[in-house]
Specification:
There is one protein chain. The chain has about 260 residues and is mainly alpha-helical. Helix content is about 75%, strand content about 0%. The longest helix has about 30 residues. The mean pLDDT is about 85.
Length: about 260
């Protein structure tokens, strides 16, 4: 166990140093959510009525913060694919280290980037009016849920990178995850304004559960309508079950594929 932890720490540090030397990657993760908070926060403010006259940014912030995790699906997948194509994965396999340490180091280093993105997003939102109204512990729980979501997305991205050939294919799959996760959900607009079938699909979108749970933990308006279905009424439970399930599948599957070098 001590060997695994030391190997993971060393590989995480190595990748973090590589990330610091690639400012374009950092800017790419930070720029989109910050831009969305600023643009949508001002564009839709007043267009969507919230209980008690709360600003739209109180509704928006959880959705944009969750999008940081969706953005990192591509980051993780392309990073893994680059390691495989460049021969770095083969060099790691030749070393006397646990195979799981390589993927853990990869995903944990990107989790630091996710934390920076979530911090930047909520920091900018705070400057234009967003607030946590529920207290310290529920507020921290909301951030913890976002980090768990980001980590699940990082492992999903790693699995895509391990099983998909070509950067173009990985980018296309990651873009699909981003579009469906962001816009077929409650991230930016309430579900009550969607057509019946689309509202049902959006309600069962795990991103909707994560976003709704964060809003409730932060004391932000969630706009759940009377008679809402199971996924809206039990958003926190669904979010935790889905994220744990994704990690329970992706971690062993990704580790096995990485160890054997084949997705078969």
């Amino acid at each position: 166990m001590n060997t695994l932890l030391s190997d993971v720490a060393a590989l995480t540090g190595r990748r973090l140093r590589a990330t610091v030397r690639s400012p374009a990657k950092i800017v790419g993760v930070l720029l989109m959510p910050i831009s969305l908070v600023l643009v949508l926060g001002f564009l839709f403010d007043g267009s969507i009525t919230l209980p008690g006259g709360a600003p739209y940014v109180d509704y928006l912030t959880a959705g944009v913060a969750a999008q940081v995790g969706l953005t990192l699906v591509a980051t993780s997948g392309l990073g893994i694919a680059d390691d495989l194509a460049g021969g770095l994965a083969d060099r790691f396999r030749s070393l006397p280290i646990p195979r799981s340490a390589v993927l853990l180091g990869h995903t944990l280093s990107d989790l630091v980037l996710a934390a920076a993105g979530i911090g930047a997003t909520t920091g900018i939102a705070y400057t234009i009016g967003w607030r946590i109204h529920s207290g310290l512990l529920p507020g921290l729980a909301g951030f913890g849920l976002l980090l768990l979501f980001a980590y699940a997305m990082l492992w999903l991205g790693a699995l895509i990178g391990l099983t998909t050939s070509g950067a173009e294919a990985i980018s296309a799959i990651a873009a699909l995850v981003m579009v469906v996760g962001s816009f077929v959900s409650n991230a930016f607009v309430p579900l009550r304004g969607l057509p019946g079938w689309l509202a049902t699909v959006s309600a069962w979108n795990p991103v909707s559960s994560v976003v709704a749970a964060c809003r409730r933990l932060w004391g932000n308006p969630d706009l759940v309508t009377e008679g809402a279905g199971f996924p809206q009424r039990h958003a926190t439970l669904i979010a935790l079950v889905v994220l744990v399930a994704v990690l329970a599948v992706a971690i062993p599957a990704g580790t096995r594929i990485y160890r054997t070098g084949t997705a078969a």
